[in-house]
Amino acid sequence: MKKKANSPTCLPLHKVRVLVGRARRQASALSSELRKLGATVLEIPFIEIRRPRSFKALDSALRNLDRYDWLILTSVNGVEAMWRRMARLGLTRTKLNDLRIAAIGPATKKAIEQRGAKVDVVPKEYVAESVVRSLQNRVKGKRVLLVRAKVARDVIPRELRNAGAQVDVAEAYETVVPRASRERLRTTLAKPRRCPHVVTFTSSSSVRNFVVLLGARRARTIPPAFEGIRFASIGPVTSSTLRELGLRVDIQAREFTIPGLVKAIAGGSG
């Protein structure tokens, strides 16, 4: 009997189990797109988003936004945290009117625009190096505010300072390892019928935390259960971290976004 075109068995990820390790409140976007393609999604967060220990630097920068020429936001988390802090301080988006804003990718750009601010620059590739290339000829003698996570690469501030900018870095949030995920991950791996075929990684932090959750330091101490599992990376920086920790990169998105990652998994999971 010929299968109907809309039959679940015709979907590219039918019977494919995919482990999504994004922070709990962020997992839905990736999970829903995978489910549309027939995947069975397992959600075990490798990252937990928390407020930083101190908002002192961020509060000072937000109260003095008129001193800056550029604002750089590198994640949706950073956008959400910054706007919450502005509201707490009684500041409105009009404080951003004289700033030029750079967003590291389309999701960050959308989050900014949904809050009524204009984005002037989105780099061609959604990584720190591309942000630098987009801005290095535009920031000489300018003052730049970079709002980001507590632990992040120093590529942007270092290279923009080399280009003649004065760069202030303000931490808006931090990422930690969710303790509750350790047992859930080990239990999932111990059950062949639950064990994922694909594990997704959307940041370097998610890779490092994944290894920590397994009680390992590098790939050689990761349980044998992962030998048949494919690792899917959102982009080259995340892939570099996987390799640095001795893990394979079986799938890498061509466009460094959630839709790009889903497309890569659908094309490379079989």
Note poorly predicted spans.
Answer: none
> For the terminal residues, how far apart are their CA atoms?
24 Å
Report the strand count. Answer: 10
The H-and-E topology, N to C, reads as EHEEHEHEHHEHEHEHEHEH
The overall number of domains is: 2
Overview of this structure, please?
The protein has ten helices and ten strands. The chain folds into two domains: 8-47 and 177-268, Rossmann fold (3-Layer(aba) Sandwich), CATH 3.40.50; 50-176, Rossmann fold (3-Layer(aba) Sandwich). The strands form two sheets. It has a five-stranded parallel β-sheet, with helices on both faces. The chain has a five-stranded mixed β-sheet with strand order 3-7-6-4-5. Helix 1 (27-36) runs parallel beside helix 10 (258-268) and helix 3 packs parallel to helix 4 (106-114). The two termini are 24 Å apart. The radius of gyration is 20 Å and the shape is elongated. It has helices spanning 27-36, 56-63, 76-88, 106-114, 128-135, 155-162, 180-189, 204-213, 236-244, 258-268, and strands at 17-20, 40-43, 48-50, 70-73, 100-103, 143-149, 166-176, 198-201, 230-233, 251-252. It is α/β, with parallel strands linked by helices and 270 residues long.
